[in-house]
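#lab-general

N.A. 3:47 PM
ok so I finally got the sequence cleaned up, no stray characters, all 309 residues accounted for. can someone with queue access submit it? mine expired

B.Y. 3:52 PM
send it over

N.A. 3:53 PM
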Amino acid sequence: MADMLNDISLTVRLLEQFLVVADEKHFGRAAERLGMSQPPLSQSIQRLERGLGVRLFERGPGGVRLTSAGAAFVVDARRLLDAQEAAIERVRRVASGLEGDIHVGYVTILSHLYVPRLLRAVAEEMPGLRVHLHQDSSVAIAEKVRSGTLDLGYLRDASTLSGDLASEVFAVERLTAALPQDHPLAEADQIGLEDLRDHDFVLPNVTALPALAEQVHVACRQAGFTPRRRAVADDLSGLLGYVASGLCVSLLAEGLRDFGVPGIAFVPVRGSFPYLETTVFAVYRPDADAAVLRLLEVIRAQRHDPPRP
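B.Y. 4:20 PM
back already:
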């Protein structure tokens, strides 16, 4: 049997021919449906039967009928064709970036604002793509993207990136004052940054959150004061925790207002200080594969949408 199977190739065309004959139960009608003459079709089915070592059809003057082996092979032939079609479709989706796995890195402070937005966009536009999330520092994310451990990274400071990485703006947001809920200014429609001159701050760690740390210091200096440090935090949870405790104020991304963080009031800061605006960058390798490039297209289409929870 193995030697006989080696003599035949179950091509898509041969399987299709067999199934049409099985459906029509007549070589003449099957040949017409397939757009070919009858003799080559008969020869193909005979070759298939020889290769399999079984009779698939009983021939008669009025047409053909399936043998028990032929009826069983109809099921398997259809399954083989379906599997081939699925495999072809899947490889095309993978090649076009519509299916597969992608590893995305982000700094902690972006997790609440932009990771949900990214995952929602993938689910809506690229449902076959599986996203694996990795949290790390900006420096580590850039290095992992460069080495190929990560396919895409989100960070705030692209100024230190080397020339072998590409980056583009993912979002631009404004910083807002994060105040304890019982703070005297918590009910204000907006405040000037100078109004926080005499208040204790929880500041971003310059190593863990370098871009945000620089923004806060420069913005305060432009407002005429140096922020009075009460505490330092390495991540968003620490910054929010200190503010919610009532001990400190801080400057955080305005999109956090939509989360209704208990114990915290977010109050807009008036003024046009450049460092009140912060930019989030998508970082990737210039030779990124189709999945990354397709995801970047989705990101570009949503780039100007306001952050949503």
